[in-house]
Write a structure and sequence with these properties.
The structure holds two protein chains of two kinds. By secondary structure, chain A is an all-alpha fold. Chain A is built from 14 helices and no strands. The longest helix of chain B has 18 residues. Chain B folds into four domains: 76 residues, RNA polymerase II/Efflux pump adaptor protein, barrel-sandwich hybrid domain (OB fold (Dihydrolipoamide Acetyltransferase, E2P), Beta Barrel); 170 residues, NADH-ubiquinone oxidoreductase 51kDa subunit (Rossmann fold, 3-Layer(aba) Sandwich); 70 residues, Roll (Ubiquitin-like (UB roll)), CATH 3.10.20; 68 residues, no CATH class. In chain B, helix 4 runs parallel beside helix 5, helix 4 packs across helix 7 and helix 10 packs across helix 13. The chains are: A mainly alpha, B alpha/beta.
């Protein structure tokens, strides 16, 4: 008797339908409010920078996969996500070649040379950013005054991002209303200003289970507490902890940069330690470092510690059970 | 009240596998021998595994390896039917049921009652109280001296898409109620629980019977893999079964599914070994969902002829369920007590596994019920680093398949993990 043509495989025989593409679609949706907030405050130049980064990242990945003879996976959206996220951490005033150079480095060095999707030790966005920051720092330190639409009052009292303002003049910084920090009505990079938008995106990712709460919660809580200790010591020198958490890369870093897959630990305790490390290092760099913004360097350092932190894991069920 | 299951006519032949995940039994009949239904055709020389009994009357035509319900060929006895329903072989005279607990345990084993779940020990070893199992007989079962605190009757189906136990709670309610005092006595458990899903509706008579029998009904979330033994025990009693032995006796619990309980109760009442099995036939894309009663060992192809509507043009046929089952390469596979369900999938119903590198998304780590790191395990096994996998609790994996279910790059996680376990066992044997 002829055998029917049956497909044979191992269990399970059903799949959730989750794919790289669906994960990246969620990630991109989470970036949407941040991107819109950036365009709302900083206008067309913001759109220009993000678009440049996105297009460069996608084309670079396509080129890389063609040249290296890899299967073409550029449509899975991961390069697009990296590109857009890189655009969001740049100022809208950066020249076009700087955005292109950053995106190119992020994809080639940060992502593919170091291992490919999910296997790169460092966050490719920060690798790309670090390259242009170290090479052309001065060109990136120019931030636009927000000019929101719909008759909203602009935060013109600040000429620099809140962290720089606080470093230069604490008196001045203490006048900045937290509500303006929260809605992003201050000079900043395209995507880091509006905390509200970042929170929206982050909550969406939590809801979609692309993230767990561990890293963002540990990151923000430890940074806040560290800043609280400093503020308790001398409120005239050190900004208020909430000011710290609401300004700069803190929110974007906690939800989007520190959680990059492959660069962060996966076990619960590992993620908590990693988050605490990020938060504390951020505050150390912000307070005593050369750089005003500590988040990207803190994340890069903790990325390097990830393989170690991944060894910290809960006991497997059924292992070393005491038999009563 | 649920619909009665459809009963299939006598099959022309049955195939009864003699090899199981926990061991094999030896045939006691020769090819050419005539057998009567209910007659013992194979038994375990060590006296541990249940006997195998003929499910139809006829002639043993051959004893040879045959594709089995566990996804691999198993030595099987093939019986050609003589076309008539004979008076079955009895285990005891009519109207004189066994009252002594020792005899009841022996009968459960002799009647050939096996379970759908894979346990380290057969039913009669797992549920018997210490007084009933002479340790001399089972020196290799470490925890038989421990009294049972909990007996858990499991009416929660093992995996999504299987409805058999919920269905049995309706159609076999009478037998299930009958089994309660028997198993309470046999196990000597302090507490007897019936695990049902949150949505389960219990009929009034069942509810009353349960209360009278002193059985507590506990509700579980209908969320895979809560019905698997380690999870169920932990969920209901808070006790953690040691792995990889998976021996629930070590924590004073025994789990028994309601279908097995009903079959045992029926056998102890009538003295006739069960020859029929209840199987769920599903083809979700063709909206086919039916429960069928048939003789054990009926070949799937023979069963399909009598099914209407019949699942058409399957691209994949899975016995034993979507998460824990095995894909069949042939429709000539016997449906056994362990089969539970047959799933038919069309070519569009599934996406094949891919040979892709892990992207460390961490979804498998988040969802692993045993708190393992499937991403690492699968990589270690893929690259032949088996010792490393073992250090990372490879053998504590219960192969529930959730990691493969959520994997965005569709890595064949269970495949790799089984491969690793297999290679390690082979290495052990070599030494």
């Amino acid at each position: 008797m002829k055998r029917p043509d049956l497909h044979v495989s191992m269990s399970p025989f059903v799949h959730s339908g989750i794919s790289v593409r669906s994960i990246m679609r969620d990630n991109l949706l989470a970036l949407l409010p941040i991107f819109l907030a950036g365009v709302f405050y900083y206008g067309f130049p913001a759109l220009r920078v993000v678009a440049l980064c996105a297009v460069t990242a996608v084309l670079t990945e396509l080129l890389w996969q063609k040249v290296m003879g890899q299967p073409i996976r550029v449509l899975d959206g991961s390069a697009l996500y990296t590109g857009i996220l890189l655009g969001l951490v740049l100022s809208s005033f950066v020249p076009w070649w700087l955005a292109v150079a950053g995106a190119f480095t992020a994809i080639v060095v940060g992502k593919h040379l170091l291992g490919g999707l999910g296997n790169h030790p460092f966050n490719p966005v920060i690798v790309g950013w670090a390259f242009v920051q170290v090479s052309y720092g001065a060109r990136m330190a120019d931030f636009p005054i927000p000019h929101p639409l719909f008759g909203m009052q602009t935060g013109q009292y600040l000429a620099d991002p809140p962290l720089i303002a606080a470093a230069e003049d604490m008196e001045m910084a203490s006048w900045v209303p937290w509500s303006d920090l929260f809605i992003g009505n201050v000079p900043a990079e395209i995507g880091t200003g509006c905390v509200l938008a970042v929170l929206l995106g982050g909550l969406y990712l939590l809801f979609r289970r692309n993230l767990t709460w561990h890293i963002p919660a540990a990151f923000l809580a430890s940074a806040w507490m560290f800043a609280m200790i400093l503020w308790q010591i001398d409120p005239d020198v050190y900004p208020h902890p909430t000011y710290h958490v609401l300004s700069g890369w803190m929110m974007l870093g906690a939800f989007f940069l520190a959680t990059e897959k492959g660069t962060a630990p996966l076990s619960g305790p590992g993620m908590l330690l990693y988050g605490v490390g990020c938060g504390v290092l951020t505050m150390i760099i912000r307070t005593w470092g050369t750089y005003v913004e500590g988040v990207p360097f803190a994340i890069l350092l903790m990325n390097a510690l990830t393989p170690l932190l991944d060894r910290v894991r809960p006991r497997a069920i059924g292992r070393n059970v005491e038999i009563a | 009240m649920a619909l009665e299951p459809k009963s299939l006519p006598l099959p022309p032949r049955v195939v009864l596998p003699l090899e199981f995940p926990v061991g094999r039994v030896e045939p006691v009949v020769r090819p050419g021998a005539s057998v009567r239904e209910g007659q013992c055709i194979a038994r375990d020389e060590r006296g541990i595994l249940p006997d195998v009994r003929a499910s139809i009357s006829g002639k043993v035509s051959e004893i040879r390896p045959w594709p089995g319900p566990f996804g691999r060929d198993a030595l099987s006895v093939v019986i050609e039917s003589n076309g008539s329903e004979d008076e079955p072989v009895r285990l005891f005279e009519e109207g004189r049921p066994a009252r002594a607990m020792q005899d009841q345990l022996r009968l459960i084993s002799e009647a050939g009652i096996r379970e759908a779940d894979v346990y380290p020990w057969p039913l009669s070893v797992r549920i018997a109280q210490p007084a009933l199992t002479p340790p001399v007989l089972f020196p290799f079962v470490p925890d038989l001296r421990r009294p049972l605190d909990f007996l858990i009757l499991n009416a929660v189906d093992r995996q999504p898409g299987v409805w058999l136990r919920r269905y049995a709670l309706d159609v076999l309610a009478e037998e299930i109620l009958e089994s309660l005092p028997i198993f309470k006595a046999l196990s000597g458990a302090e507490k007897t629980l019936l695990a049902v899903t949150r949505q389960q509706v219990l009929s009034e008579s069942l509810d009353r019977g349960l209360r009278m029998a002193g059985v507590e009904v506990v509700r579980c979330p209908d969320r895979y893999p809560v019905a698997l033994e380690p999870m169920l025990v932990q969920h209901l009693t808070g006790r953690e079964i040691p792995q990889p032995s998976g021996d629930a006796r070590a924590v004073g619990t025994a789990v028994l599914d309601v279908i097995t309980a009903a079959r045992a109760a029926q056998t102890l009442r009538d003295g006739i070994p069960p020859r029929e099995i209840l199987v769920q036939i599903s083809s979700p894309s063709q909206w086919i969902q039916s429960f069928v009663r048939m003789r054990e060992g009926t070949l799937l192809r023979d069963a399909l002829e009598h099914l209407s509507p019949e699942p058409k043009n399957p691209a994949r046929v899975v016995c034993r369920g979507p998460f824990l089952g095995h894909a069949m390469y042939d429709l000539e596979v016997p449906l056994a007590q362990e089969t539970e369900m047959v799933l038919f999938q069309g070519a569009d119903d599934f996406t094949p596994y891919e040979d892709e590198p892990c992207i460390n998304c961490g979804r498998c780590v988040q969802s692993c019920p045993m708190r393992l790191f499937p991403n690492e395990l699968s990589r270690s096994c893929e690259y032949g680093r088996f010792e490393e996998a073992e250090e990372n609790d490879l053998f504590r994996c219960i192969e529930c398949g959730i990691c493969a279910y959520v994997c965005p790059v569709r890595r064949p996680m269970v495949h790799l993990i089984r491969f690793g376990k297999h290679e390690l066992s082979a290495l052990r044997e070599e030494r």
